[in-house]
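Reopening this one. Same input as before:
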Amino acid sequence: MLASIFNTFFPEICAACEQVLLQNEQVVCTHCMHKLPVIANQEIAEEYIRDHFYGRIEIAHAGSLLYYQKKGLSQHLIHRLKYFGDERISAFLGNWLAQYLLETDWAKTVDVVIPVPLHKNRKRKRGFNQVSGFGQALAANLNCAYDEESLIKIVDSRTQVFKNRFARAEIKDAYFFLKDKDKIKGKHVLLVDDIITTGATLESCAENLLKGDPSKISLLTM
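Same output, byte for byte:
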């Protein structure tokens, strides 16, 4: 009863189009669900990501839920998540992507999900790591561990979104630090992030994770 009254005065809105959600809708309305540029064939996403990182890091498997379209719904979702604090989006996308992953054999071999970390200063300012809900939802669906403590960011670099390609490529391994190698030794690590631009951040994180001697590293992004 109280929930109904609350929803009457403070209805939840669609994270993509910002229209009021119907009673049976969550986070994204049905109309936008059909309009979002979903990569239903994860083999296509894996091939693209493998090509993107060819000669840079060895990836066991990879995937992504959406194509990023400037001024499109996918950009709006990511911006609402990162810059307007709509944390609902993170777990929603993780649960959605998990539906495709559970149809693959490789996802069932993942031992631990690790998100790309935020520096403590940026996390304090934003209030949360935008990838946390995504990673936690994936770990819950894949029935594996979630680890947000072992890989940390030790340099508070300026946001990568507004850097040009060459500046982003200058991210060094020293930006990140693997403080607990034993937690990932011999394990299949799934590294997750929101978007792939040049891939420099994911590459740097993966190179640090390799210092912990995992059996393999896979990548997933929103």
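So the earlier flakiness isn't reproducible anymore. For the record, Confidence is low (pLDDT under 50) at residues 1-7.
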